[in-house]
Design brief:
By secondary structure, the chain is α+β, with helices and mostly antiparallel strands. It folds into four domains: 97 residues, OB fold (Dihydrolipoamide Acetyltransferase, E2P) (Beta Barrel), CATH 2.40.50; 102 residues, Nucleic acid-binding proteins (OB fold (Dihydrolipoamide Acetyltransferase, E2P), Beta Barrel), CATH 2.40.50.140; 119 residues, Nucleic acid-binding proteins (OB fold (Dihydrolipoamide Acetyltransferase, E2P), Beta Barrel), CATH 2.40.50.140; 122 residues, Nucleic acid-binding proteins (OB fold (Dihydrolipoamide Acetyltransferase, E2P), Beta Barrel). The protein is built from eight helices and 29 strands. The N and C termini lie far apart (79 Å).
């Protein structure tokens, strides 16, 4: 776009977040805008204004004044001459004042460096300084292979134009680890810009930065208009994502419990938490390893999860992985909204568990090219040491039958009626109540949920599978409560 204050004109570009002004038809020829935040950049010996934030003030049909190129007399912003129209005078004074203020700041006259937008970084730019928020910072990670060993940490920097990954190795890791904090805004300059390794880089940027001995990091106290860098998926929309996608999510921690997997020597501890949001849905989040061990909250905080993996175990769930991160009670508008909403409405709300795109935790259509036989699953030891997913096409060969002689083969169990608790209940003859050892609930009657073993097979063999409530409902097209009532009618206890 070309910008003019009525006396001078110059070339400018819109940051991507402002494109909607043009797409929606608000940014038209001769319209008057107010650039509330902008920077400048050198491109082939020309200075281009980057509009980072703006408002459209008014639509005009005629051009304002007879502007000349700003290059004719250099990049100076002289005060405009007294115009013939009072309306034009007001507009010119506002435009000239805003431009003088912003460019003085960007040019370094007050100590602030010239800022380079992240989306303009490239290996061909030698001098650059970004003003960005650290939206993700990893722990120190160690590696060891035939070429040697070492350690590093990486972070993601975000400004109004995009995000870029940066990595600090060895000595730079020691120097910058405590200096850089997640959530804060910094001026960062110098470093080696390289093509991004897409397999390890999820920022969407074509480049990434390696910090070196010349890298300078300076805390910026002015973080106004600097984005938090995250867009959060509402829990109700998790079903629209595919299995193994990654997303950001934010919600209130409704409950938590820790599970230790002792079936294998190399298994890691993991903790489950249930988060809820204003969409009325709940979702299970699984934390692993040290994150699970260190996660200990007593209240019901708001938690922001970044780059978590979408799963489909008993419906949609989320899994914390190596490059995931979390923040408790973040200073975000989404978090403040959720806190107020939950305290006012969520304490007694009946939340619905997240389901997959098909409503039953499935990921969608089956990819037949990925079908496996049971023999292949067994021979490859899939799921032995770690949780794994596979696709098989099987026929039901045997299910428990509701007969007197099969009383030792249960089809369901009496479950707790409390939300987010499916623990089995025990009956107390003294008060004729059902009691939950996990949540201390007391009920007149349980909620029966499917829990059984059935035999499934294909042309290569068969195996026994554990069937839980959501799958049992699909198989029998009835709630477990109905089958339990049939047992009563048949006199089978």
């Amino acid at each position: 776009v070309m910008l003019s204050d009525g006396q001078r004109f110059t070339q400018a570009m819109l940051a991507s977040q402002n494109n909607h002004f043009a797409i929606d038809g608000y940014l038209t020829k001769n319209c008057i805008i107010k650039a509330t935040r902008f920077s400048r950049s050198k491109v082939q010996d020309k200075t281009i204004i980057i509009i980072l934030a703006m408002d459209v003030v008014k639509q005009e049909k005629e051009r304002l004044g007879m502007p000349q190129s700003i290059l004719d007399e250099g990049p100076t912003f002289a005060q405009p001459a007294t115009p013939t129209s009072t309306k034009t005078s007001t507009i010119n004074k506002i435009s000239a004042g805003a431009a003088t203020k912003s460019f003085t700041k960007a040019s370094g006259l007050k100590g602030e460096p010239t800022i380079t937008p992240i989306n303009q970084l490239s290996p061909y730019r030698n001098q650059w300084t970004v003003k960005a928020r650290i939206t993700k910072k990893s722990d120190v990670r160690k590696w060891s292979n035939e070429r040697g060993s070492g350690y590093l940490f990486n972070c993601t920097m975000t400004d109004e134009t995009g995000s870029i990954k940066a990595t600090a190795f060895m000595e730079q890791c020691d120097r910058l680890l405590k200096e850089i904090e997640e959530g804060k805004v910094y001026y960062i300059s110098k470093g080696k810009i390289l093509p991004a390794k897409k397999i390890y880089n999820t920022t969407g940027c074509d480049y990434e930065i390696t910090f070196n001995e010349s890298t300078n990091v300076e805390l910026c106290n002015d973080d106004s208009n600097m984005p938090g860098g995250f867009s959060y998926t509402v829990l109700a929309n998790l079903g629209d994502l595919s299995k193994d996608d990654t997303c950001n999510a934010i919600g209130v921690v409704r409950s938590r419990w820790r599970t230790w997997n002792n079936h294998e020597e190399n298994s890691a501890p993991h903790a489950h938490i249930i988060i809820v949001d204003h969409s009325g849905f709940s979702c299970k989040v699984t934390l692993w390893g040290k994150v699970a061990e260190d996660f200990d909250v007593k209240d019901q905080p708001v938690i922001a999860l970044r780059h978590v993996k979408v799963g489909d175990y008993h419906g949609r769930d989320l899994n914390f992985q190596g490059d995931s991160s979390m923040t408790l009670n973040p200073d975000l508008k989404e978090a403040h909204f959720l806190r107020g909403w939950y305290d006012a409405n969520g304490l007694t709300y009946k939340f619905q568990p997240c389901q997959g795109a098909s409503g039953s935790g499935e990921s969608g259509l089956v990819n037949h090219s990925q079908l496996m036989t049971l023999e292949e699953v067994k021979s490859k030891n899939i799921g032995i040491k770690t949780t794994s997913y596979f696709t098989v096409k099987l026929r039901v060969k045997a299910t428990p039958r509701i007969k007197e002689e099969n009383r030792h083969m249960p089809i369901s169990y009496p479950a707790c009626r409390s939300e987010d608790c499916v623990k089995g209940l025990s009956y107390d003859d003294s008060d004729r109540k059902w009691h939950c050892a996990k949540c201390s609930g007391c009920f007149d009657a349980p909620e029966y949920r499917y829990l059984m073993r059935i035999s499934l097979g294909d042309h290569m063999g068969s195996a026994w599978f554990n069937i839980y409530d959501n799958v049992g409902k699909l198989l029998f097209e009835k709630k477990a409560e109905v089958l339990e009532q049939m047992k009563v009618w048949l006199g089978i206890s």
